[in-house]
């Protein structure tokens, strides 16, 4: 009985660490802080906090929706979770490599033309902040893939807890955006971005490898 509980705990903790690492790396509040400040430029601190609150709520709604119906949507198109592991892993890998090279990911941050046509500061909470910058292809892939690991109630609790923890960190960072920006050096942001890029690339490789083992068992 004790051994069984220990194995369950290890599985739950492994799920939590992997999910948190992937989700935090993609939605990273610190590396997305300059984007938040840019699209809310000109707003008073109180208005910035309203945008931060709306952004966190939109991320919660979008993320919960993709987690709840993502697998069913894939089934409608005849796409398996392992297909998504490979394709989504490639998307996440490109995001990670862009972070390592100091380049914004066009799949999350948009092209140069799209960035220039972003809406007015008071309407940016949903587009582009919540979607596609924070809840973009990489985030959606991560949410759906880790949702497929939910087999019992405790898994669902761990999953929800990790997702809410990342959103809380995001909310607190954006809520205090002006104060944090004054104290956080450019070098610190660059170092964190590079480190998260490396972590994200490693997670992406594991996603791709796990998918290929099932799709192409001869490679295992």
UniProtKB/TrEMBL annotation:
<feature type="transmembrane region" description="Helical">
    <location>
        <begin position="124"/>
        <end position="150"/>
    </location>
</feature>
<keyword id="KW-1133">Transmembrane helix</keyword>
<comment type="similarity">
    <text>Belongs to the UPF0056 (MarC) family.</text>
</comment>
<protein>
    <recommendedName>
        <fullName>UPF0056 membrane protein</fullName>
    </recommendedName>
</protein>
<feature type="transmembrane region" description="Helical">
    <location>
        <begin position="86"/>
        <end position="103"/>
    </location>
</feature>
<keyword id="KW-0812">Transmembrane</keyword>
<dbReference type="InterPro" id="IPR002771">
    <property type="entry name" value="Multi_antbiot-R_MarC"/>
</dbReference>
<feature type="transmembrane region" description="Helical">
    <location>
        <begin position="195"/>
        <end position="216"/>
    </location>
</feature>
<keyword id="KW-1003">Cell membrane</keyword>
<keyword id="KW-0472">Membrane</keyword>
<dbReference type="GO" id="GO:0005886">
    <property type="term" value="C:plasma membrane"/>
</dbReference>
<feature type="transmembrane region" description="Helical">
    <location>
        <begin position="57"/>
        <end position="80"/>
    </location>
</feature>
<dbReference type="Pfam" id="PF01914">
    <property type="entry name" value="MarC"/>
</dbReference>
<feature type="transmembrane region" description="Helical">
    <location>
        <begin position="15"/>
        <end position="37"/>
    </location>
</feature>
<feature type="transmembrane region" description="Helical">
    <location>
        <begin position="156"/>
        <end position="175"/>
    </location>
</feature>
């Amino acid at each position: 009985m004790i051994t069984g509980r220990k194995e369950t705990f290890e599985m739950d903790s492994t799920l939590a660490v992997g999910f948190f690492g992937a989700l935090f790396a993609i939605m990273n509040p610190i590396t997305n802080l300059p984007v938040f400040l840019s699209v809310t430029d000109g707003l008073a601190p109180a208005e910035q906090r309203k945008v931060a609150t709306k952004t966190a709520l939109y991320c919660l709604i979008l993320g919960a929706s993709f987690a709840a119906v993502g697998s069913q949507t894939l089934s409608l198109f005849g796409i398996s979770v392992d297909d998504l592991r490979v394709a989504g892993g490639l998307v996440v890998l490109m995001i990670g490599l862009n972070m390592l090279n100091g380049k914004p990911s066009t799949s999350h941050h948009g092209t140069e033309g799209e960035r220039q046509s972003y809406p007015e500061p008071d309407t940016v909470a949903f587009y582009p902040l919540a979607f596609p910058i924070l809840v973009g292809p990489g985030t959606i892939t991560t949410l759906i893939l880790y949702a497929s690991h939910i087999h019992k109630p405790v898994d669902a609790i761990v999953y929800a807890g990790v997702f809410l923890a990342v959103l809380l960190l995001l909310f607190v960072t954006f809520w205090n955006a002006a104060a944090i920006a004054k104290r956080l050096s450019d070098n610190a942001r660059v170092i964190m971005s590079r480190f998260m890029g490396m972590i994200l690339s490693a997670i992406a490789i594991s996603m791709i490898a796990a998918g290929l083992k099932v799709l192409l068992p001869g490679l295992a």
